[in-house]
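Final report, Chapter 2: Outcomes

The project's central promise was a pipeline that accepts a single protein chain and returns its three-dimensional structure in a standardized token representation, suitable for archiving and comparison. That pipeline is now operational. To close this chapter, we reproduce one record exactly as it appears in the project archive, with the input sequence first and the structure output second.
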Amino acid sequence: MKLPTKTWLAVTAAAGLALGGFSPAMAAGNAGPTEHTDMGVTGDAVMEHLQEISDISTSHSDEGFRALGTPGYEEAVEYVEQTLEATGAFDVERQAFEVENQTFGEVAVSVDGEELEVTPASYTEGTEEPLADLPVALPVDDDYSDLAGGQLGCAASDFDDSAEGALVLVARGTCSFGEKTQAATDAGAAAVILHNNDTSAPDETLNATLGERVENGAPTVGVSYNIGNDLLTKIEGAAEGEPLLADFTLETEYTTSTTWNVIAETKAGDHDNVQMFGAHLDGVPEGPGVNDNGSGSAALLASAEALAEQPTENDNAIRFGWWGAEEVGLVGSAHYVESLSESEVAKVKSYMNFDMIGSDNYIVGTLDSDGSDVPIPDGVEVPEGSAELEKVFTDYFDTQDQKNIGTEFSGRSDYQAFMLAGIPASGLFSGADGTKTEQEAEWFGGTVGEKHDTNYHQPTDTIENVSKESIDIFAPAIGYAVHTLGYDLSEAPEPTDPPTTPPTDPPTETPTDDPTEAPTDDPTEAPTDDPTEAPDERSLSIDPTTIAQDDFVGERGVQVAATGCTPETTATMTVDPQNGKIEKFEQTATADAESVAKFGVRGLDETLAADYVGTYDVTVDCDGGDPLTGSFEVVAEGDGPGAGDGGGDLPRTGNEALPLVISAGVLIVLGIAMTMGARRRRA
């Protein structure tokens, strides 16, 4: 678990500055929040969207679920678009691109007459005709028991002359599958078998992807650890000069498919300062892909809906991306970044990736962009600002007393293209085919020695096998990250003294009437009633109660103070306009140590001052007693008693007014905006 070096609020603010482009500028009267929140994003909200994605996938089980080029994927894209458009808060775009798709015919491999269970690698080349009597060879290595060294076949120099025209057996590990096939091809191999190195799942066939086609590459298949290890033993035991012989057939065809990314950007916010969040929407044809990666996709939808419901508009533009063709080589995200001009890339200040957050044997993992838990692999360039992004999560988890660990920051997911473009990146991950350690089991529960996701790329990746416990942990963390990067925190001013009671009339200069000569009544023998209790201290002050329209849209506005609220509790002000042009709205504030909760109300659009004319009913509900009620009236210039009198200063814009900023809520109806500034005092 990472230990914080500062309080979470301070660290979050520092991260915003480090990423660049986070400015304190605000819309007139639209002061932002004074602290970051998870926006109310819950595991239940994520599960609602995940159920929809699951239903779409399973309804297309005979057509490849949500894999590239399937009707299921297109229907999932439509669901994402409809959900976003229903919020009214986003500009939604479907970005089409073409992907080379691959189908397989006969795939058969036998060694020494024994048929092997193999899986063709994605993007492999095929055999023009069946290959017969191929010698079977190994890379050069001094210890084939350690699943390391030369047997990994990461370079052509890992092979000797025996690889020429042979079927070579290569272990998984260190470099990518595409690099292994390229190295074997360069060494003259006729075909390649990649064998799994996962001893915890020794019978699981390796599903490998080469990432892209290797020109004139050797046809490549994957096998399980047990099959690979048995074959290794037979090759080593073969008599010198009498190698094992193999037959190898791999029929494949490439076609071009059109698929899509879905991009959604908030209508609000600084569009030169874009904070981006992404998850891949496609799956593998072997299963419904509910955890991989329906879970990340559903979390983005829940976060987008929560963002759209916030009381104030975000300062920085938030852009969400649902990627296509991830499972065949990160194609969708790479295409998207490549489609951006240099100036558009410069506007993207950060990228957060969420690829699997509901693994059944889960870990709470952050992409370890600072290398503190998992060293950054050689050759991986980490953009400046990535470590600060990771701290958004680690500091949040610390406030929740939630242990978390760093996971490999290698670029082998959709954040890779953003890293290569120099954009800071991080994200969350609940685990895939990694094996749970004793330390992880102590921290997160689960089974030692089992995969983090025991259903990874399997038909059993269903909603029944998603961990709701994991979703409950990750969902609010993602919502918190969206809020953190979307909003600049406002300074909460110290509350002013509560309004004083107007002074009594001064004494008159002339004396009162002469005293009467008759004495007053004799005193009663019985005692009078008990003295009355002190008057109720709960009261509502509205200053002024009548205000001219021009003052209402100026700097005065109307100040509301509720007295008698329990200190350090939340008070809610509801303003109910009676003029039929403005909708009812509410705002919250924290009662101070003197039991006073303060608010401010003013109009934002000076050009529409006349539209604010009317009566406004005000209710403040807070702990300590019954709701407090009152009203004020906005009148046409010069009308009504007291027009233009009273009222305190309310928020301005820019640095000049920053000390005066009052936390506010925004309401826009028919182009008319109103703000309630809630003056808060941090606990």
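Archive annotation: Residues 1-30, 496-508, 528-536, 640-683 have pLDDT under 50 and may be disordered.
This record, like all others produced under the grant, will remain available to the consortium after the project formally closes.
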